[in-house]
Amino acid sequence: MKHFEETKNLLNNSVLFYIIATGMDGNYSYVNENYSKKFIHINSDFVGQPYYITMHPDDGNTCIEVSAKCFGNPGRLFPATIRKHDGRGGYVYTQWEYKAMFDDQNNPAGLFRV
Fold it and tell me: At 66, phi and psi to the nearest 5?
């Protein structure tokens, strides 16, 4: 998870990039300030909430498919297009890259997305 910590430190205060992480339970474990501000209309504290609360229901399968690729190919990034709630009843298309995270014993620990 060293790469995640480095990326998190680099992009925590970014005004251009979102960075999020989810645990193996599918709940947010981290969101950067830009993501938190952009989606405040959905929740004021994402940590512990299910990852899908910000997205179009039909994009859940995309997340599952891309996540499986990540765990099957550790160290690689995989792209995904996910529709996010725009706060006005519609959706906006967002581009993400996913990467699997592993703990010190090399067990799956979650995913981070930039």
Answer: -70, -40
Contact 102, 74 (CB under 8 A): yes
From the number of C-beta atoms within 10 Å of its C-beta (0-12, 13-18, 19+), residue 90 rates as: exposed
Taking alpha carbons only, the member of 98, 67, 78 closest to residue 4 is 98
Q: In this structure, are residues 39 and 47 in contact, taking their beta carbons and an 8 Å threshold? A: no
| Cβ–Cβ < 8 Å for 93, 74 | no
In angstroms, the CA 70 to CA 66 distance is 6
Strand 20-23 relative to strand 108-113: parallel, antiparallel, unpaired? antiparallel
Kindly give the residue spans of alpha helices, DSSP state H, lying in 24-96.
33-38, 60-72
Q: Provide the whole-model pTM.
A: 0.90
Mean pLDDT by 10 residues, the chain (114 residues): 78 90 96 94 95 95 97 96 94 96 94 92
Contacts of 15 (CB under 8 A, 6+ apart): 34
